[in-house]
Each structure stands twice: as structure tokens, then as C-alpha cells.
Specification:
Blueprint lengths: L1 H12 L8 E6 L4 E10 L2 E8 L2 E6 L9 E8 L4 E8 L3 E12 L2 E13 L4 E12 L14 E3 L1 E2 L4 H5 L4 E7 L2 E7 L9 E5 L5 E6 L2 E4 L4 E8 L2 E8 L13 E7 L3 E10 L2 E8 L6 E8 L2 E7 L5 E9 L5 E6 L6 E3 L1
Parallel strand pairs: 5-18
Antiparallel strand pairs: 1-2, 2-3, 3-4, 5-6, 6-7, 7-8, 8-9, 9-10, 11-12, 12-13, 13-14, 14-15, 16-17, 17-18, 19-20, 20-21, 21-22, 22-23, 23-24, 24-25, 25-26
């Protein structure tokens, strides 16, 4: 109790970065859960790693609060924790999400997902910088650069941009697909939408409120904030196309938010998954498709028009779905169990 009271007082009187929140990290290899907490040490904001009540390690390199650069810990939808880094200069505004991973008690970062807005060119740059780094050696300001970035280019002639009424339309070629960025008003607003088509121009998915971040191969991430949480949805373009799965579907029932009961059928052909689900009081089925990445399963929920209406980030598929669901556009996540 005394420890929580001290954290609360620091949070309110010393720095906006100080928080009484505890961030859990599930260590699959060691089969236990570690905790990260903010603490105050002199004039520094530090992060302390705990195993229960036992302090394990202190990190002085994670929290920044400068005029043009700040960083903070945020919860990840689906479980886990990430560093959120924001930097705003006279020309460019950087938003970077860096998930923190743990294995055998060792914490590290693997990839930084970067989205940049250039106010002079009115351009959007995105990219993934992957380099496995022990957490104690991570340098916050080294993520604020052009490494790994690619730019959307002006594109007002495509059928996708014309039919969606874009006032500002840009596109990006990636892994034999076209990614269209559509803004109807302010390009920095949450109303901008993403449209993905295959090599033949067939529309695969559309969604609002997320940044599309290309990665290695055909991997990508959909990144956004949902209240006090960060969303990093990982996917593969090759898993977006409709196909007839040959695998035996897994069928079952789960709840969203503890009250929305649904039935589902999901077939797995690693790394891709495809299926559908239906709410108990609805007749129309929603399509599901996605992929496995690490210990998580990522599923897109789409309607008949290929519009994404929700995202599942799951820790388990059997004996039932367990994880979190978030709506599109993003709002606070709901549990799935």
C-alpha cells in the first residue's frame, strides 16, 4: 500500500510520465509473469523490473521528457507492454511503437514500428526497424530517424481513391500489393483510411484509424492508439486473399466483453488462418482471416464489402479463443474468453 501511495504522489506532483500502473510481461520460456513499474530516483524517472515483490533490474534509459522528444510505457492490446515514442520537430512528427519482449527473464526489443508525417511535403513515411536489442542498451532517440522508412506518393487517379472520395490520396507499392492512404480532411486526423489491393487491383481490405507499417517480406503491422493502449496488429499480405482452406475447422463459442456471445469456425494452414463467426442474436456471419506470429494469433474481422470492423489479438485458440478484441475505428479493447 505504501509503495502504491508513493507512486501515486510522484505521478501527480513530479512528472506526467510517472504512473502507479503495473505493466505485466508474460515470460513463456520461464512460465511466469514479470512486472515493470515507474519509479522516481533523484531527478530521473526510471523503470524497475520486478518478479512479484522482488526487484530484478532497473532501467534508466527508457523514459524521456524533452521539448521535442518524449517516451512512455503503454499497455499493448492483446497483452504485453511497449514503449511509445513521440518526437515533433519544426518539420516532422514521429510516432514510434516498440514492443518489449521477454524470454527467460531477459527483456529486449525486436522491432520499432514508425509512422512519420512531414508537414512541409505533407507526406506520410512509414517503416519497420528490426534489430534485437537488450532493453538496457536501447536508445530512445535512435528510433527517430529515416532508417527503414518508405514514403507514400501522391495518387489521385486510381479507382480506389476515386470511389472513396479522397481529398488527399497517396499510395505505396509493397510486396506486389498496393496500399492506398485516403484522407478526406486533415491528413493527421483519425479519419484517414487504408485500402489494400492485390497485384490485379482486387480490393482485399479497407479500414479506418490505423497506420499501415510495412515490414520484412510480406509482413506488415496495423498500428494505432486505443485510449491508454497501443495496438500493434501483425499480419501477412499473403494471408489476406480469400481461399478455400483444406484444414479441418476448429469450432467453438466465446464471449467478447463478457456478454457478446458468438460462434466461430476457424481453419489453420500455418501461418494463415481463415474462418467466420456469428453473434448469437445475428444472422450475418463476419469473415475472419489472419496469421500466427510468435505466441499470438492475429485475426481481421471483415464484412461482405471487405471493410474491417474489428481486430482479434489472441493468446490461445484452444479450447476456446482467449485474448482481446478492438473495434475499427479503434476504441478501448474488450476481453475475449
Amino acid at each position: 500500500m505504501l509503495k502504491l501511495l508513493c507512486l501515486f504522489l510522484f505521478a501527480n506532483f513530479y512528472s506526467p510520465l510517472i504512473s502507479a500502473q503495473t505493466f505485466d510481461l508474460s515470460d513463456q520460456k520461464a512460465s511466469n509473469t514479470l512486472q515493470l513499474e515507474f519509479e522516481r530516483e533523484g531527478e530521473r524517472n526510471v523503470v524497475q523490473l520486478y518478479n512479484g515483490e522482488m526487484p530484478l533490474k532497473r532501467y534508466e534509459n527508457l523514459l524521456e521528457s524533452q521539448h521535442t522528444l518524449d517516451s512512455n510505457l503503454v499497455h499493448l492490446v492483446g497483452g504485453g507492454v511497449a514503449l511509445e515514442i513521440n518526437s515533433e520537430g519544426s518539420r516532422r512528427k514521429y510516432h514510434v511503437i516498440v514492443p518489449i519482449d521477454v524470454s527467460g527473464g531477459a527483456l529486449y526489443t525486436d522491432c520499432a514500428f514508425k509512422s512519420v508525417y512531414d508537414a512541409v511535403d505533407q507526406s506520410r513515411l512509414v517503416g519497420t526497424l528490426c534489430k534485437k536489442t537488450p532493453l538496457e542498451k536501447f536508445v530512445v532517440d535512435e528510433t527517430v530517424n529515416d532508417v527503414g522508412l518508405v514514403s507514400f506518393v501522391d495518387d489521385s487517379t486510381s479507382q480506389v481513391t476515386r470511389t472513396n472520395g479522397c481529398t488527399q490520396a497517396k499510395s505505396l507499392k509493397f510486396a506486389h500489393h498496393s496500399i492506398f492512404l485516403c484522407s478526406r480532411n486533415d491528413p493527421e486526423s483519425g479519419s484517414r483510411s487504408i485500402h489494400i489491393t492485390d497485384a490485379e487491383g482486387k480490393s482485399l481490405i479497407s479500414l479506418v484509424g490505423f497506420d499501415f507499417i510495412p515490414g520484412p517480406g510480406d509482413r506488415f503491422a496495423l498500428v494505432a492508439n486505443a485510449e491508454a493502449n497501443a495496438i500493434v496488429f501483425r499480419g501477412r499480405l499473403s494471408c489476406l486473399a480469400r481461399s478455400k482452406s483444406k484444414g479441418e475447422p476448429q469450432k467453438g463459442h466465446s464471449l467478447i466483453g463478457g456478454k457478446y456471445r458468438f460462434s466461430y469456425s476457424i481453419s489453420v494452414e500455418d501461418p494463415c488462418l481463415e474462418g467466420a463467426y456469428t453473434y448469437s442474436n445475428a444472422s450475418a456471419a463476419m469473415r475472419l482471416n489472419g496469421s500466427n506470429s510468435g505466441h499470438e494469433t492475429y485475426l481481421l474481422e471483415t464484412d461482405k464489402g471487405a471493410n474491417v470492423t474489428g481486430l482479434f489479438i489472441l493468446k490461445a485458440l484452444k479450447p476456446k479463443l482467449i485474448g482481446e478484441w478492438v473495434s475499427v475505428p479503434p476504441k478501448a479493447p474488450l476481453t475475449v474468453d
